[in-house]
Amino acid sequence: MNTKMKLVGALLAATLTSTASAGIVTEWGYNNQAGFLLWTGKGEPVGPLTASGDSSTGSTNIIDNNLLSDGIPDGIIDAFDSALPTHLAWGTPYVPKNPGGLQSSLDVDSAVLGAPGSLITDGDFVNGTSITHNNFIINSDSDSLQTAFALDALTLTPSAWIGGEMVASVNYAPQLAFGIAFHETPNNQAMCANGEANGVGDNLTAGGDSACGDIFEITGLSDLGLVPVLGPNYIEFTVPFYLTTGDSAWDQHVYYITTRLSGLTILPESFPCTEDAALTCFGFVTKEDQSNILQAQFKIRVPEPTTIALFGLALIATGFASRKKNRL
Fold first, then answer.
1. Cβ(35)–Cβ(53) under 8 Å?
2. CA-CA distance, 321 to 27, in Å (whole number)?
3. From 147's CA, which of 9, 39, 227, 320 has a CA 20 to 30 Å away?
């Protein structure tokens, strides 16, 4: 064995000292469902704010929304939990510029069913639920959505693994809960709420007319202990996921799930936050007279030591293949 092979072997041996009995899930099937648990309208009880839709869309409900006396879900998915609405609609259409007479709305695209193997550990992002703001022109902001509270649930079912035997059972990832503070902005202002002039950037209608884009903030992330990372046109955050197998041979249970929200312009840091003016706002601007999609994506990865072990296995396999080729 040459020096390179000895070093790789030593690295692998040292790494596998703690993970020799650990199994690693390499592929997953998934089910992602989300819906609205609470909502308020600015003009309530007068404002026409309605809720409809079904977060499970006919499949088994996976959202934990049976609240205890302290307002926290009980942590168990059972017959006390039910599907949530996915469609909130509001506003009296301003017919001259909204001839279709359409209300504005928020829609959650729920029950995203992934086939086995559709999510690869340490792979790329896959699409989860999305939120669409159908931003149609209404008469005023007096009967608009003001706040909403959403729950987002994810199940992960192992479909391929290495390093041991396991049962491909459904596992519940940490359920996300977050608020939405909505701002139905007047379209006749010279300077819009996002800090740009009327008719500039996102402050246009689909037909190119001047307007002010509406705004919704994502609130409550700090309550979950999440620390969002801001990219050029996205925010993302990571939570640990503990795989429960019931088999002591699988001592590597911890994975990390990263959720990314993208597709819309991020609010400038100068925007005054609803929760706390000292905090950076995490929210988005939506254009008038069109559908604006905030896409949620997620990926899963294993902790670094396991990644090193897999890398070592690949190097050894490459080394053996090279030695065999040299003997031919």
1. yes
2. 26
3. 227
Angle between helices 3-16 and 304-327 (to 10 degrees): 150
Please give the pLDDT value at position 304: 67
Whether 112 and 59 have beta carbons less than 8 Å apart is answered as no
User: What is the residue-averaged pLDDT of the chain?
Assistant: 78
Instruction: State the number of CA atoms in the 13 A half-sphere of 113 facing the CB.
Output: 8
| Tokens of residue 32, six digits | 């992602």
Q: How distant is the alpha carbon of residue 251 from its chain centre?
A: 28
Q: Which of 109-113, 156-160, 169-173 has the lowest average pLDDT?
A: 109-113
Cα angle 9-15-19, degrees, rounded to a multiple of 5: 125
Burial environment of residue 53 by CB neighbours within 10 A (0 to 12, 13 to 18, 19 or more):
middle
